[in-house]
Amino acid sequence: MLARKSIIPEEFGLPGLASRLPRKPVFRDRVNKARFIAKNGSCNLAHKNIREQGRFLQDVFTTLVDLKWRFTLVIFTTTFVSSWLLFAMSWWLVAFAHGDMDPERQNETHCVTDVKSFISAFLFSIEVQVTIGFGGRMITEHCPAAITVLILQNIVGLIINAVMLGCIFMKTAQSNRRAETLIFSRHAVIAVRSNRLCFMIRIGDLRKSMIIGATVRLQVVRKTTTPEGEMIPIHQIDVQTESAVASNSLFLLAPLIICHVIDKNSPLYDLSAMELQCSDLEVIVILEGVVETTGITTQARTSYVSEEIQWGHRFVPIVTEEEGVYSVDYSKFGNTVKVTTPSCSARELDEKPYILIQTLQKSELSHQNSLRKRNSMRRNNSMRKGGGSSGSLRRNNSGLASPKVQFFTPTDGGQNLNAVT
């Protein structure tokens, strides 16, 4: 059975009409990807299938410093106990070879006094290596082998102590500990500064000891494809800042706003406000400098993905002068305020400068209108508060006052003005 045809032609039906309507461009949601640098500065990178594991043993000291504290303590405890047991076996063998274990030779000279078992040899090994010396056991000059073992154990013990102390010192004085007090703003902002579209972040130091020769570097990490078809998953692009252009280090005495002018050399030059939210770029911020108190170079890192970049915002000021002292309010460190900013890209602003002028003019007009509204509201409130007796008196006085009326009467010589009140 054939289907009955519709009376309305297909081109005038709902599917046909919907197909002919102009469609607006649809921006797809950005696919959530793993960030390269976490907010705390740690690298989100996993090393897999490393075949040459022996390279880590070639630099044992750095490997021990990079290990976690629990692994480091386990390794040092195992090393000490192993060395004590090893030299305890050596002392027991020396005593056994010299005949000190024989009960019939109690009155003869021993290599080590009061070493009659492995337990006593283990205790003597601990006393020698940690230089305790309780006085119950001692070495004699009648056994050259015992003197040799004593020298070897002292040398090995000094090496273990030196490595342990150096490793603990390096782990406690690592540069990343100083970076804990170097803070970054939670969000980055894009706004107009000096008639140019700028990318800005805020950095600060919580300690009074300064960072000498502090420098800030910005990098944009994004997935790119070359014209030859090669896909680069982590393409790092250097971004110039105002301090880098001036080739001067930062004087990080108070929180500073790092500004990057989005010009034709910037990787953000072609991005508008809408395209920024759909992009998968990540801006990495690296702060380096020398710690004033220790002289160790430190580095603090963070990153900003597209969701953490606020378009059309500006950081609020947090440095004020109070009683001759500059005060910094860190409770407002990451606070921003919304400002009028064109939503187009920096390229479009360069090609069409009137967009920025019109935007600034609209902002000025809206600011003036808001000021007028505030002033009118203040007047109304003051009039309402001052109403009552004063208002009634004003109304009574206005009613008692009689207007001045003027009559014009024509005369022969002209017109005379007679005023009657």
UniProtKB/TrEMBL annotation:
Matches recorded under Pfam families: IRK, IRK_C
GO biological process: nervous system development; potassium ion import across plasma membrane; regulation of monoatomic ion transmembrane transport
SUPFAM superfamilies, alphabetized: E set domains, Voltage-gated potassium channels
Keyword Transcription attributed: no
Region (Disordered): 365-421
Topological type in the membrane: Multi-pass membrane protein
GO molecular function, one term: ATP-activated inward rectifier potassium channel activity
Keywords (A to Z) from UniProt: Ion channel, Ion transport, Membrane, Phosphoprotein, Potassium, Potassium transport, Transmembrane, Transmembrane helix, Transport, Voltage-gated channel
Catalyzed reactions: K(+)(in) = K(+)(out)
GO cellular component: monoatomic ion channel complex; plasma membrane
Domain Inward rectifier potassium channel C-terminal: 182-352
UniProt-annotated site: Role in the control of polyamine-mediated channel gating and in the blocking by intracellular magnesium, residues: N161
Superkingdom of source: Eukaryota
Positions of transmembrane segments: 71-97, 145-169
UniProt domain Potassium channel inwardly rectifying transmembrane: residue ranges: 37-174
Compartments where located: Membrane
Record family assignment: Belongs to the inward rectifier-type potassium channel (TC 1.A.2.1) family.
PANTHER family reported in the protein's UniProt record: ATP-SENSITIVE INWARD RECTIFIER POTASSIUM CHANNEL 8, INWARD RECTIFIER POTASSIUM CHANNEL
Protein name: ATP-sensitive inward rectifier potassium channel 8
Species: Crenichthys baileyi
Organism placement in taxonomy: Eukaryota, Metazoa, Chordata, Craniata, Vertebrata
